[in-house]
Specification:
Length: 75
């Protein structure tokens, strides 16, 4: 899902991509960091837990992205 944030909202950049799973939870979030020269990143969220009825990811991994959009994963 492509997301365009309004200019008055502080974000990494105004155009971002969010990937949802079948339950509607965010599993990947792609964006560029404008203040670092438009460095592309792929942010993965997993291991969700219920906190007072809200699903919150407890594991986050952020990888730089190649120009192809494929993340560069370091293990």
């Amino acid at each position: 899902m492509n997301v365009t944030w309004p200019a008055n909202l502080a974000t990494h950049n105004s155009n971002q991509v969010v990937y949802l799973d079948e339950a509607g939870l965010i599993v990947r979030h792609d964006y560029t960091v404008e203040i670092t020269g438009n460095t592309a990143a792929a942010h993965y969220m997993t291991e969700y837990v219920d906190v007072s009825g809200i699903q919150v990811p407890t594991r986050h991994r952020i990888y730089p992205e190649q120009r192809t959009g494929k993340p560069i994963r370091a293990y």
